[in-house]
Amino acid sequence: MSWAVEAAHGxxxxxxxLVAVKDRRMNSIMHAGLIATLAHASIGVAEDERAExxxxxxxxxxxxxxxxDGNPDGGSEPFFPFRGQASPLDVTATRSEPLDPLFPxxxxxxxxxxxxxxxxxxxxxGLEWNxxxxxxxQHASRSVDEQPRDAGTGRLDLGFNWVLxxxxxxxxxxxxxxxxxxxELGQPDSYTIGAAVGAAPVNLNALQWTYxxxxxxxxxxxxxCDERVTASVGKIHPNQFIxxxxxxxxxxRQFLACxxxxxxxxxxxxxxxxGGAALQVVxxxxxxxNTVWADPNGGPDRGLxxxxxxxxxxxxxxxxxxxxxxxxxxEVEGNWNIVFAGTNQSLSTxxxxxxxxxxxxxxGFGNTLLDGLEVPSSSExxxxxxxxxxxxxxxxxxxxxxxxxxxxxxxxxxxxRQFNAxxxxxxxxxxxxxAIGIGYSWSRPTDLYAEPRREVQLVEAYxxxxxxDSMQISPDLQVLLRPATGPDRPVYVFGIRLKTxx
Length: 502
Description:
The chain is an alpha+beta fold. It has helices spanning about 5-20, 25-45, 60-65, 110-125, 195, 345-355, and strands at about 55-60, 125-140, 150-165, 170-185, 215-225, 230-235, 275-285, 285-295, 315-320, 320-325, 330-345, 385-395, 400-410, 415-425, 435-445, 455-465, 470-480, 490-500.
């Protein structure tokens, strides 16, 4: 019986007790209880006799799976079983939900057929796909040792998710895939803006991609028990499941600096594409458990051949999804979690991989994290550990906050302590997919550097707006309040980013 129904029956029970009780003092207590119960019933039951939602409470299973990133396919209808004759495809139809851009889209005639085909494959075949290209230019106010202060980055992403079947007896299964290609514009592939201005081991450009074109993601995902249990196996990205933030996880449209794109203290395996497996469980509404095992010797430009060599990186994350009342009276959700991670592949093993493979070392953050470390290039396994915590919470319908902290042993990562704080304001001018974000990060480099590095303090702010139906533009400013190396005074890095979706 629900609490609202119990509240409605409460007055009848209390009335019966009042008839039987003669003591005046007891009568007065019972009358007070009756009034309180009637008031409770009138507030707790809506006109349609359904219980009104209350805050605070825990989110339902769908919102819990969303917070845990346990819904990898977006809820598309499966390819099997076939649903009869397919609906006709109209490649010239206008978009049903335009993005409220500033200007008309000059690419409209080109991209409209692609998007209509995408809508059709999603609805009729269970196949979702997207193609976008992100272009970035950055300029630094100064650099260390007269290194270049200007750099450009171009990155192409092609991804799809194909839901093949959904059956009560075998569950829901499909394939995830991502193909990525990137170039450094105007500088060699070994150049990083973070190293040039003295920020390393903090990386200021998570968009940079100097690996060969390769399938970075290729995995099977399978759900059971009404999608409360989801397993993913193949080439995965551990940050898909561990310390994933909705307001600071996408460098193509949110923050550019790596500290806001997953806790750097949890080891370089968190930020790379590699062979592995993940299990996500929602044991009860509002609570989730994510576990991941990954191959620390893998990388974006590598296959699965190093699985079985004895290396491992593993993490477990426990999460809570509360629903609270926001400052504007709206219901706002959160994602509070704590994670524990470990590996038997320390920085010495990662350094050996970088030596053997050059820039494409599979570490997720490139050689920026490895330059200057005073550790032997040894393949001997050493166990290292770390932990982290995250509170991501809506505080109003259009305002969200993120707090993160991580700590690890010296050999887990080039950064052994980190704190991040982010504030995001969506739709500040009332336009769809518009946002302002500002973040602060403090990072302490490991003691294993040959020359000690200062604690790094960084502030980043961006503004994103839909320029046309196909293009987003984002001015970005990073202020390195305290660099790790070089002169101990602020550095300013100005950026402009253009994302084109086809």
